[in-house]
Every structure is written in structure tokens, then in C-alpha cells.
Write a structure and sequence with these properties.
Elements lengths: L2 H19 L9 H13 L3 H14 L6 H14 L3 H14 L6 H15 L8 H16 L6 H28 L3 H14 L5 H15 L3 H14 L6 H14 L1
Length: 251
């Protein structure tokens, strides 16, 4: 490699290293200037330096009028980086420690959103799903007139469907393995806990069929009555009406 070209590469590399390692001197910034600088980084998508600046701000200016703003956007920066547990922790700090902040309602929604993002497919452990439902419900309870309540309701419904599917599929597996009492237990759980999901009528129908098979006629009749009251337009309603007549005749 020619010496001039080699030297030019060294110069460019040195300039790159200096450029990457240099940062804005914020030591003489007022709280407002420091916050605005951190927000500029955030809005430009420079989340790593923004994170550092928001962290510095909440440590140095805890009594500032911008403290809750910085705390909220510190959490939002973690969220944008998909570090949802860290984001949830920072949102919860704002809710607990700066309860008079106008950011509290948004922080509560975003706290729930963090757990919603962490909610896995139904086959896996659903602890985060349940936590998301809990936090969205808290948002609805505390801020019922907020414009995001409808979205929170929709996401609760979505996650309840996921929880119902998990219990329903467990029941199906038990039934296939001929552990029918265990299957009925799980079907009943779906019916009782997730009665407004698409899996509830399926679970109740399957439970009734097991009860009929095992000649648990009184239980079957009670569940058929429940089914027809709750789901009169279901595709299985007519079949169950016929079973109800047949079982009643045997009494």
C-alpha cells in the first residue's frame, strides 16, 4: 500500500475514533438546556446517548421542573430499544414517585404496554400476559375517560383469548390422553374464567359431551341449560337441545 494512502487511512481512522468518543459537554447546561439536548437525541433516534443523558439528568436534577419529563422519556428510550423490563421499571418509578405528574396516565398505559410486548405465544408461561392485563385494567380504572381506554380494552380481550386458548388446549390434550376428569376441570376453568372468549362455548360443549359419555346426566343437563342461555345461536345449540330432551326423558 502506498505510504500516502496508508497515512490517509490512519488520519481518517483517528478522526473517526475521536468523533465517536467525543460528546457534548453538558456540565454547564441549565436543567432545561440539558433536557432539551437529551430530547433532541431521542427525537433523532440516537437512543444510546439519549439514554445516558436522561439518566444523568434524573440523577443531577431530581428537583427540576423537568424531572418527570426526563423520567418518562428515560423509560420511553428503554422502550424504543425494546428493553421492556427496564422500561417497565422506569415507568413504575414515575407512577410511584411522581404521582402528581401529568405523565402518570401515559406512564401507566406504557407500563402495561411493556408487559404486552413481553407476552409470549399461548404455549409458554403467561406471567407477563397476566401482568399486562392487570396493568391495562389499572389504567382503565384510574383513567376511564382517557382516549386510550378503548385500545386497553381491546388488548385485554386479546390477551384473555390467549389465556383461554392455553387452558382450552390443555383440556384437549387431557381428553386425548383419556384423562377425562382433568379435561373437564380445564374446560370448566375456561367456561368460568374466560366466558366471553371464543373458547368458552367450545369448552362447555366438550365438557357436556364428556359428561354424557360418563352418564353424569344431572351435570350434563345443568351445563346444557347454561350453554343454551349463554350461546343460543351457537352451531352446537341444536344438537344440545336434542341431547337435553333425551336426557330429560330418562329422568
Amino acid at each position: 500500500m502506498p505510504i500516502k494512502t496508508k497515512n490517509l487511512l490512519y488520519v481518517l481512522l483517528a478522526a473517526l475514533i475521536v468523533g465517536c468518543s467525543s460528546s457534548m459537554d453538558t456540565t454547564k447546561f441549565t436543567p432545561e438546556e440539558h433536557f432539551n439536548y437529551a430530547m433532541r437525541l431521542y427525537n433523532e433516534g440516537d437512543y444510546e446517548p439519549a439514554l445516558q443523558e436522561f439518566q444523568n439528568f434524573v440523577l443531577q436534577f431530581s428537583g427540576s421542573a423537568f424531572n418527570d419529563d426526563a423520567q418518562y422519556y428515560l423509560a420511553m428510550t428503554y422502550f424504543q430499544r425494546k428493553q421492556y423490563l427496564l422500561a417497565a421499571y422506569e415507568f413504575s418509578k414515575l407512577i410511584k414517585n411522581i404521582s402528581a405528574s401529568p405523565f402518570v396516565s401515559d406512564a401507566q398505559f406504557m407500563l402495561a404496554e411493556c408487559y404486552y410486548k413481553l407476552s409470549p405465544p399461548y404455549q409458554l408461561d403467561q406471567a407477563y400476559t397476566k401482568k399486562a392485563i392487570e396493568e391495562f385494567q389499572a389504567f382503565i380504572d384510574f383513567f376511564p375517560s382517557n382516549k386510550k381506554v378503548e385500545e386497553a380494552d381491546r388488548k385485554i380481550e386479546e390477551m384473555n383469548e390467549k389465556l383461554a386458548e392455553k387452558e382450552y388446549q390443555s383440556a384437549v390434550i387431557y381428553e386425548k390422553m383419556q384423562y377425562e376428569y382433568a379435561a373437564m376441570k380445564y374446560y370448566a376453568m375456561v367456561v368460568d374464567t374466560y366466558h366471553d372468549t371464543q373458547y368458552a362455548p367450545k369448552a362447555l360443549y366438550n365438557k357436556i359431551k364428556i359428561e354424557v359419555k360418563k352418564k353424569l346426566n344431572n351435570d350434563a343437563l345443568a351445563d346444557i341449560s347454561l350453554f343454551l342461555n349463554r350461546y343460543p345461536n351457537d352451531t352446537n345449540a341444536k344438537e344440545l337441545q336434542g341431547i337435553e330432551v333425551a336426557l330429560s326423558d330418562k329422568k
